[in-house]
Specification:
The protein is α/β, with parallel strands linked by helices and 201 residues long. It folds into two domains: 127 residues, 3-Layer(aba) Sandwich (Rossmann fold), CATH 3.40.50.2020; 67 residues, Rossmann fold. The strands form three sheets. The protein has a four-stranded parallel sheet with strand order 3-4-5-6, covered by helices on one side. The protein has a four-stranded mixed sheet with strand order 9-8-7-10, with helices on one face. Strands 1-2 form a two-stranded antiparallel ribbon. Helix 2 links the parallel strand 3 and strand 4. It is globular, with a radius of gyration of 20 Å. The protein starts with a helix and ends with a strand.
């Protein structure tokens, strides 16, 4: 879809695995002196996808690409941007470090779990926000959206929910759940269309 909109063909790449699941990447076209954009959306095999991305970045560098940009809509391990308990790892920083070691020149991602993650890199990072696109879709496809309310499933997503609510000119609510208690809704949702915003990253 991206290459179709840009009017350029995608680069042909061959990805193989051997008997013990080691990955090899072979570029089928020359990328010498080219600006390369690698799109990696990740799947339920996220660790495998990370290795594919790293090896592909390295392959492009080895093939004398001018610049390599990793386009990562969902940044893996984004929730682990700080130590939640002692003797644990800041895994998001580790992912940033290995991306840099692989030779990436630029990272484009969306809705980072925490803005501090941009500081994990010493290369440019563009953190795009989904709210404008979501708001546009709602306004164009749900005529009765004006009778709606935007709901956050927890306090952590409140900032993004208020951003979307402001763009739609709608009120917002939040689901609050304390340990060993039933969830309660802060806000009036009775008779309204609820747009529940779930933050994955």
């Amino acid at each position: 879809l991206i290459t179709k909109k840009l009017g350029i063909p995608p680069c042909e790449v061959e990805i193989k695995k051997n008997a013990i699941e080691e990955i090899s990447v072979e570029l089928k076209v020359s990328v010498r002196n080219k600006n390369v954009y690698i799109i990696q959306s990740f799947s339920d095999s996220i660790n495998n996808d990370i290795m594919e991305l790293l090896i592909m970045i390295k392959a492009c560098n080895s093939a004398s690409a001018a610049n390599v940009t990793a386009v990562i809509p969902y940044f893996p391990y984004g929730k682990y941007s700080k130590m939640k308990k002692s003797r644990t790892a800041i895994t998001a920083k580790l992912i940033a470090n290995i991306l840099i070691c692989s030779g990436v020149d630029h990272v484009i991602t969306m809705d980072l779990h925490s803005s501090v993650m941009q500081g994990f890199f010493n290369v440019p990072v563009d953190n795009l926000f989904s709210e404008p696109t979501i708001a546009k879709y709602i306004m164009e496809n749900i005529p009765e959206y004006t009778n709606g309310i935007v709901v956050s499933k927890n306090a952590g997503g409140a900032m993004r929910v208020t951003s979307l609510a402001d763009q739609l000119n709608l009120p917002f609510a939040m689901i609050e759940k304390k340990t060993n208690t039933k969830a309660t809704i802060i806000g009036d949702v009775k008779g309204k269309i609820c747009f529940i915003m779930v933050i994955i990253g």
